[in-house]
């Protein structure tokens, strides 16, 4: 026998309306939203590190200003998403603790090194491009604060993707050394970008329930395919080769066929054994510790205002 509250929850989902913080929700729904939004927020904050690594070494003032703006945006996305998570009754200090103690995840993609400035362009083009594919549907996620946060974040991700593509176009019109630098970065970031969409649907324990609760609007494989179909023509415009010999248009499917991902690599990176996992978490831990005095001063100031 379902209660009135459960019926209201179900009816709200059926009508594609939003669940708001004040509404009753199943505990499993709340836990799923905390997990997904918090890990998304962690990803934004950790994601500042790979590109931030190049701010002091950008080749021109213009590139430095663009990169500064982008990294600052990621910080804002993280804070936005931590605020959305807090509407579910959790505290961001606890979420940070869960991140730095490895009890919560962040996106695998940020555990790879940024070896040249071309990586900054490829991250904008591929990583933010993948983020847009994954996050535009989340603007229709059933949890109100998350869906609304996504609308603003997706607008800024579009700027990120365009600035990355423009940077690469500039380099591809440059010297052979610059063109080689771009191709090397594409070779290193293509497959990890496809892994951003998560494990195959058959190995995705959360997808079925998240789709039923209209948290996720498409499966991992559907969005991965959408990203490949969108990106292959862009690679042609850029003049780069995507590192997949099995990549080809399938007229019957009206999609690109592509090769098998290295799911062992994915599992290794997600479980903490990627190229930069230890460095990324140590850096986040250090930043948190270094900022303790600011938090204490702000709390003391707030107490004096009461
Ligand atoms: N990296 C790390 N962990 C991953 C992962 C990845 N790329 N893909 C999946 N996982 C984890 C999941 O979190 C889950 O573990 P958990 O139960 O402990 O949380 C497990 O692998 C199984 O995966 P599922 O497919 O069952 O999990 P989900 O249904 O949560 O789907 C997801 C995974 C597609 C990433 C989904 O959580 C999602 O869409 N999240 C919101 C978007 C997001 O977080 N994007 C991160 C990219 S960073 C970014 O966009 C910043 C931009 O500036 C580039």
From TrEMBL:
Its EC number is 1.14.13.149. InterPro entries: Aromatic_CoA_ox/epox, Ferritin-like, Ferritin-like_SF, PaaA, PaaA_PaaC. One of its GO terms (biological process) is phenylacetate catabolic process. Keywords: Oxidoreductase. GO terms for cellular component: cytosol. It is an enzyme of class 1 (oxidoreductase). PANTHER family: 1,2-PHENYLACETYL-COA EPOXIDASE, SUBUNIT A, PHENYLACETIC ACID DEGRADATION PROTEIN PAA. Gene3D superfamilies: 1.20.1260.10. The lineage of its organism: Bacteria, Bacillati, Actinomycetota, Actinomycetes, Pseudonocardiales. SUPFAM superfamilies: Ferritin-like. This is 1,2-phenylacetyl-CoA epoxidase subunit A.
């Amino acid at each position: 026998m379902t209660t009135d509250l459960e019926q209201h929850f179900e009816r709200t989902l059926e009508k594609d309306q939003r669940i708001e913080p004040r509404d009753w929700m199943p505990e499993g729904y709340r836990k799923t939203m905390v997990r997904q939004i918090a890990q998304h927020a962690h990803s934004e904050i950790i994601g500042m590190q790979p590109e931030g690594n190049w701010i002091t070494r950008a080749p021109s003032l213009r590139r430095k200003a663009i990169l500064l703006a982008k990294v600052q945006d990621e910080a804002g996305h993280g804070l936005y998403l931590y605020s959305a998570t807090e509407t579910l009754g959790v505290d961001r200090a606890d979420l940070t603790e869960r991140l730095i103690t490895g009890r919560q995840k962040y996106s695998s993609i940020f555990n790879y090194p940024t070896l040249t400035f071309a990586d900054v362009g490829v991250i904008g083009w591929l990583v933010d491009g993948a983020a847009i594919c994954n996050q535009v549907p989340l603007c229709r996620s059933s949890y109100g604060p998350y869906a609304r946060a996504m609308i603003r974040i997706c607008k800024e991700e579009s700027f990120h993707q365009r600035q990355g593509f423009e940077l690469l176009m500039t380099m591809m019109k440059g010297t052979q050394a610059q063109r080689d630098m771009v191709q090397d970065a594409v070779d290193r970031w293509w497959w990890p970008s496809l892994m951003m969409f998560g494990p195959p649907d058959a190995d995705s324990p959360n997808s079925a329930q998240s789709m039923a609760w209209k948290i996720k609007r498409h499966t991992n494989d559907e969005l991965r395919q959408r990203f490949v179909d969108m990106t292959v023509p862009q690679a042609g415009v850029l003049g780069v080769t995507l590192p997949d010999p099995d990549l080809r248009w399938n007229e019957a499917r009206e999609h690109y066929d592509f090769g098998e991902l290295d799911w062992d690599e994915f599992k290794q990176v997600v479980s903490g054994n990627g190229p930069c996992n230890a460095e990324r978490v140590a850096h986040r831990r250090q930043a948190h510790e270094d900022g303790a005095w600011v938090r204490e001063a702000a709390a003391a100031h707030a107490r004096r205002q009461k």
